[in-house]
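Project standup — Tuesday

K.O.: blocked on the structure for the chain from last sprint. Re-posting the sequence here as requested.
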Amino acid sequence: MLKRRHLMASLAATTLAAPLIARAHGAYPSRSVKIIVPWPPGGGVDAFARVLQAPLSAQLGQTVIVENIGGSAGRVGTLSASRAQPDGYTIVLVNDTFAATEALPVAGTPALYPAFQPVTLAISGPQGLFTHPRSGLATAQVFAAAAKANPGKLNVGVPGLGSSQHLASELLLRAAGDLRVTHVPYRGGGPLLQDLISGNIDAGVVTFAAGAPQARGGQLVALAITSEHRSKAFADVPTAAETIAPGFVQATWQGLLAPRGTPTAVIERFHAAVLAVLQDKAVIARLADLGFDPVGLDGNGFGQLFDRTVDTFAGIAKERNIAAGD
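H.V.: unblocked you, prediction finished:
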């Protein structure tokens, strides 16, 4: 898992550079800044965007607007952001599903990542395996036993085929004994969770933060999280490693990208503002309540993590014969 020491190191470096950054590009921002969330409301990325919105507005001295543009496992909103002017006034908040879509390119379409430059790797956290109270799948062990007894019978929702949750699910199923389920795609975590609450699918894999409020309220049952250790905020939810997949850890992350060509001083200004937000005690508490940890990697560190994630997802996709659009 990514550690908060990255946040402290990045903050120290940025604090020293802050006066120079301000002088280099003191006019930014002079108007509102838009953050595109390439998912519908209600999912894990949207949840973080809402936590970030108000304190980031305060740090930048301008209104931060969150715009949800869902569709095609995040591709629609990300493509829209790639076409924006490289001036720092349109930023896109992505999760590791963007790395998944780059690992599984759609035939005939160019890679999107080269159109961006990394700004900040903001947070990390676990994925979650959830079910509804009427499913009969009381524990992760019961879920695994059912999948083993009847390969392909269980319906497991994911926020899009080829999404990070889909590939993380495949990684988990492999680690749990090469289990097989039928994955059901949704336009995002929000629609998936609503269908799961209604009992229309057996289980779902989403960013743990997305399903945590419903699990706390009793609408869902959290079977497992993919972190190394249990969440302090959800100590009764076991890890996948201690239940069905020994040694299994799979982090999800969220970060901010700017269109390529955005001035370095603007990126540094935005990065510094995000780091300051991630140091706020109230923000840290809200993130912990959702199951997220602040990270704060700069663009270079974010880019390296992005490449590693693409490699991991490409590997499981090849092994499981998963192609874009499956």
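K.O.: great, moving the ticket to review. Residues 277 and 283 are 7 Å apart (CA to CA). The longest strand covers residues 116-131.
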